[in-house]
Design goal:
The protein is of the alpha/beta class. The protein has helices at 18-31, 48-55, 81-86, 97-103, 107-120, 132-136, 140-151, 181-197, 215-222, 239-248; strands at residues 7-11, 38-42, 61-64, 91-94, 123-128, 164-167, 207-210, 229-232. Strand 1 (7-11), helix 1 and strand 2 form a beta-alpha-beta unit.
């Protein structure tokens, strides 16, 4: 099996001013200087430049939390991939459950966004996941298969290894309820099998777990053979907590 570099992403959501973002990065960098993992910070749009400038000369990458699929146009309030690239942003979160739930983001939109990100040279972090009701009804696999197939329909199989997949059970986001390591491993192994069936280089695709990841549970989650890292929400807002999660990845 190829050695997949661990990938730890901090999704700040709608938190941190420009000043707070700078303070966070200044506090974080000395704590993770020895890491061999890929560390990605996903600030709000207003703080992207502050984080980009402070991480120069380090291994830390920066991701936006969303983007539009078009390069330009009459799309008030939106930001395009070329605009992000101009800021030296390297990646973008797409399809987060909050974007799907609160802002009506559809699989059809994501089918356009993922290829647009790849074409611009951005690394897509594609989020998929099921609700508590779906899991209780044993519909998890069907929902994940539908999301993956629809969101990646126009991505060539040879390029799928350039997409990072984040499995985030909606019932575990911000609730304090976390999938057990065994549940997370079973589901992420299923996702990898689906990619393999599609002809993708599945062993090269990095698949993350997201959902109430904390310093206390990070090591056990990331010790699972198919879990390649974490998309961290609340715990990523504290530099010491996020550094502990990065260190847990090895």
């Amino acid at each position: 099996m190829p050695e997949r570099t661990p990938y730890i992403a901090a999704n700040w959501k709608m938190h941190k001013s420009v000043a707070e973002a700078g303070q966070f990065v200044d506090a974080l960098l000395p704590q993770i200087a020895a890491t061999q993992s890929d560390v990605v910070i996903c600030p709000p749009f207003t703080a992207l430049t502050a984080v980009v400038e402070r991480r120069y000369g380090t291994a830390v990458k920066v991701a936006a939390q969303n983007m539009h699929e078009e390069d330009s146009g009459a799309f008030t309030g939106e930001v395009s991939a070329p605009m992000l690239v101009e800021l030296d942003v390297e990646a973008v979160v797409l399809g987060h459950s909050e974007r799907r739930q609160f802002f009506g983001e559809t699989d059809e939109a994501l089918a356009r966004k993922v290829p647009a990100a790849l074409a611009a040279g951005l690394e897509p972090i594609l989020c998929i996941g099921e609700s508590e009701e779906a899991r209780d009804a044993e519909q998890t696999e069907g929902i994940l298969e539908r999301q993956l197939q629809a969101d990646l329909v126009d991505v060539d199989g040879a390029r799928l290894s350039e997409v990072v997949i984040a499995y985030e059970p909606i019932w575990a986001i911000g609730t304090g309820r976390t999938a057990t390591p065994e549940q997370a491993q079973e589901t992420i192994a299923f996702i990898r099998d689906m990619l393999r069936e599609r002809g993708a280089p599945a062993e090269d695709v990095r698949i993350l777990y997201g959902g109430s990841v904390k310093p206390a549970n990070a090591a056990e989650l990331m010790a699972q053979p198919d879990i390649d890292g974490a998309l961290v929400g609340g715990a990523s807002l504290d530099a010491a907590d996020f550094a502990a999660i990065v260190k847990a990845a090895g």
